[in-house]
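Hey, resending since the last one bounced:
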Amino acid sequence: MKLLIKITAFVVLLNIIAELQVITFAYNAKPVNSDAIIVLGCAVYGKNPSPFFKERLSEAIKLYKEGLGKYIIVSGGKGPGEDISEAEAGKEYLLKNGITDNVVLMDDGSYSTLQNLENSKKIMDEKSLKTAIIVSNKFHLKRASIIAKEAGINASYSGVFVKRYFYEEVYGFLREAPALLYMYLRTLANI
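The structure tokens again:
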């Protein structure tokens, strides 16, 4: 019984440490002037970006208009229930909101954050782009930073928090701690 209590306490402690890393990274991340802005894919409802995806795209527009990037890379394939890929929906949203076609680069063949970033890195290499700002929800930034490092992307980060979906955002923060621990364990297993 004592061993079970110790193991449980250890797992809880690890989750608390991971959660603190997620929160600290989320609120300390600052975008810096870069060659590209990468918007990580998110759900599309039919042909329309979900509220989380719209916020990410709007953040990319803001960063672009502030002169923090020369290109915007939209990323994400076509998932179940989506009429078009996340990248296509993202591009349409950007074009409707004043971004010119020559600025938008697309990766519509990815189905995970890892693929988003690996494919974005290929696009960056093709265009000789060296640095990027990665845009996602705040809760996702810490894990995205680890994946970006694995993909070889020199990045800074900018996160969104969609206040009208407060509970979903909080759930996202809570879900990220075990996801982050899983990534750490996977990395340790590969050493």
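DSSP finds six helices and seven strands in the chain.

Sorry for the duplicate.
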